[in-house]
Records
---
Amino acid sequence: MSQPSQPLSSAASLPHILLIPSAGMGHLVPFVRLATALSVRRIAVSILAARPTVSAAESHLLSSLPSSIPILDFPLAPLDPSHFPPSSDPFYLHYEALRRSAHLLPPLLSVTGTSFSALIIDVSITSTFLPVASAANIPCLLLFTSSASMFALYSSIPSLSLSSPDFNIAGILKIPNSSLPPPLRDPTNLFTTQLVDNSRALPLAQGILINTFPALETEVLIAFNSGQIVPSLPPVIAVGPLPLLGNLAENHPPGASQAMRWLDEQPERSVMYVSFGSRTALPTEQIRELGAGLEMSGCRFLWVVKSTKVDREETGEIEELVGKGYLARVEGRGLVVREWVEQMVVLSHRAVAGFLSHCGWNSVMEAVAAGVTVLAWPRTADQRVNAALVARRGVGIWPDHWVWEAEPRRKGWWRRRRLGIR
Ligand code: UDP
Ligand code: UDP
């Protein structure tokens, strides 16, 4: 998005949009970026914050928003987890709690006394919030937080046979069955039930916003807007790359964290940044093998290690994860941290040359915006669809034989993979 020419003026006379994210930093970050972009374009914005948040990172981001993005608190009644499969993802359970609270939105809005011009809601709450918005006569757009290619799959789900060897979408996008988000193979998984419901409701929206840009996903965007993918869809609008949060240099002075101080000491374009986003945990065995690989590679690296899906649950010492003696062996050449790093600031640092990424869509867009090459290791969900795009568009490379979270593991499987033995 280019910057607006006019500064924000008196909020009372401006159109006012309420943004409703679902859960997880991969959703909240693009919503906050969109809110920032709108607020500097003479549009008043508020963000609905469904509480309690799942992760500490979400609470922290919400509490650090500028006064130009006020928050409307939306307390959620907790769901009884015994009604859901025991393995249910905490973020998807939160989507579900929010989805079931859609009827509480109109009373909340009437208490605020604000007449909202439109809502922009997360795709994951589409099927319950769109009818409520329509009954309240408020135009409602969706923000899809992954790629347009993933949205092509998402919106086509009701008409696809999930057992096909591959999915040929409108003759412009071929997605192999092995790239299907693994939870979709289980019809009882919350991911599947919500996605199918949401996908059917898409035509009720007034528009669909995606954090992508035409040069990156040309054919898919054209196909959407000429009705070739799902004829009944509203306009699909590429709004990316969404502007970064605040002014990087101003908000993140050099040396502000251990990671930044370490990067400041490294030679230009010498460091591999290794991170799998905000909610992807690796089992200890994989952490050890990845550590061995980084050590053997001889490269400089900054590695954000994560062993639990929800940040509040991380405990213990890093050394327990990476193995005794590891930190001393790589000292000077590699830094391992287990904390939130300001990824956009890291990617924009002169010392960073490459990004080993799970290909969460925000990470891909941030790498593109910073001009950093991606080495893709997708782990689950939409990440293989995104990784294929990374490889296709020259954003980076994807060794597509690397395992995926859902693949069965035999003893020693990971070592055999690493050595190229099937
Ligand atoms: N992120 C960050 N620091 C971290 C981990 C993640 O700033 O230590 C940000 C990252 O820059 C991105 C978002 O959190 O904006 C994660 O979204 P993404 O779509 O890449 O992956 P997800 O976490 O949803 O799997
Ligand atoms: N999604 C959804 N319902 C679900 C799970 C995901 O509607 O139960 C949507 C989600 O909003 C996102 C897309 O499907 O835009 C890809 O979701 P995924 O879980 O792969 O990514 P993440 O939630 O980590 O960003």
---
Amino acid sequence: MSKSIKVVVTGAAGQIAYSLIPRLVDGKTFGDKIVNLALVEIPQVVDKLEGLVMELEDSYFPNMGEVTYTDNFEEASKDADWFLLVGSIPRGIVYNGKKIEERSDLLSINGGIFVDQGIAIGRYGKKNAKILVVGNPANTNAFIGKHAANNDSQLWMAMTMLDANRAKSILAKKTNNNVSDIKNMIIWGNHSPTMYPDSENVQILGELGSSVINDINWVESDFIPKVQQRGKAVIDARGASSATSAAKAAIDTVIACENPTDPGDCFSAAIASDGSYDVPKGIICGYPLMTLEDGSIEIKRDISLSEFAKNKFQISIDELLSEREAVKHLMQ
Ligand code: NAX
């Protein structure tokens, strides 16, 4: 009999989740494992999930196990292997009578949510649970959640795979290659407009990006800002934020964690710094990661950063430190 796995998804009635959830049970993301889903929403919209569950049933996914939905995160957390934390309060909405426009307000409100979710995950999630935070501000939400969980055997990540996929797509076009020819794509720092997408250490058909591209003006004035601002460009064009590409990136992250990384490659996600690359310990920072044969996930440590790269990366580290400062009242 196939093994089973339990996956919790928050924000399950939102637009990313609508693309994401079917792919969790399609028999590809978790191989032949039976996937039990626990879908979580806020009380105001949780009933809508009945419709999603009906659609999942009607789709007939052979690998779909039990599907439950709830507004009770603690209940959903019990013995879960994976947590995809997509739900968060977006900028621009009115929350408790106030329009949420400042990043500091966003940090504070979502931070509060992640304290409670972190406590539940630490207490009720599996010992080796993996947590991927998608809801923004993703790195700092993960930082708060990890602190609240207080369970170091679990792995907290914030999603930067979408940024890596965007960067690969731009580099593939620039160099007339396939996206699959681009490896070792690293997003350093914060999932925000300060992120540093690394065009120097990327491998294009096995050659270092620094020698293939060799056009610092294009890198600085075109490539980096395009990756940093791609989310906004999608919003401007679509009238809504990235959804299907964000769902694909979350799936790519799960697959990258569930399977050993090919030698010479890495994948992008933000995890707690252990001091690697001189990043202050504890902040959730975008790094090059590898999944080893035993399933453990490690930072790839042999990347060399140019002075140009170090300067760009430092801007994002400084932003993460200022976000940490803004939420210190939540770190009891
Ligand atoms: P939607 O507004 O469509 O859906 C979010 C859902 O989360 C809503 O249904 C809401 O009711 C629910 N929710 C809010 N608080 C919750 C809580 N405490 N527990 C459970 N559910 C809760 O947003 P969507 O487009 O799906 O985006 C979700 C999040 O992803 C946003 O924060 C967005 O900024 C973030 N993104 C992150 C990306 C990344 O690369 N890390 C890229 C895409 C996206 O912008």
